[in-house]
Every structure is written in C-alpha cells, then in structure tokens.
Amino acid sequence: MIKNLLAQFNKAFESKARLSIMSVLVVNESLSFNALKELLSLTDGNLATHLRALEEAGYVAVQKQFVGRKPNTTYSATDAGRQAFSDHLNALEEFIKNL
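RE: above sequence
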C-alpha cells in the first residue's frame, strides 16, 4: 500500500524549491521573476533552473514583455500544473494518513 502511494508522488515537485514555486503560483494569478526570487529567497540561477524544469514539464507558463524599456518576465501555473500539483498534494496526504 505504501509503495503504491509513493508511486503517486510527482518527481517534479520533490525539490523544496519547486514545491515552493508551485505553492505560490497556484494561489496567485502570476508573479514576476523578481517577486518569486524575493518571496522564496532563491538566487537568480537556482530559481531560473527550477522554473525552467517546471516549464518543460508543462506546469508553468512564461510571459515575457517590456514595461517601459525594461524586460519583465512573469510566471503562472498552467491548468496541467495546477492539476499535477493537486494530485501530488493528495498523494502526500494519503501517504501521511496511512503511516
């Protein structure tokens, strides 16, 4: 039973940083790179690496635009990302209940 529950965990969310990123993005419509960096206390490189992995998995969408002359990149959770994150949290909850 425990083995089956462990199999339901989503490897994309095993990292504390990715779990944090998705937690923030599912409760906000979108956030800028700098806002995520400050909120989660991550370095530019660390945040960029984790965001790229989530984007490649189809869990995060990226919008690039210019505000005035400055580039502004914002991130949002995709529908697939929201569902995958919800499924992951449900699997965690079931795992804990069955310990």
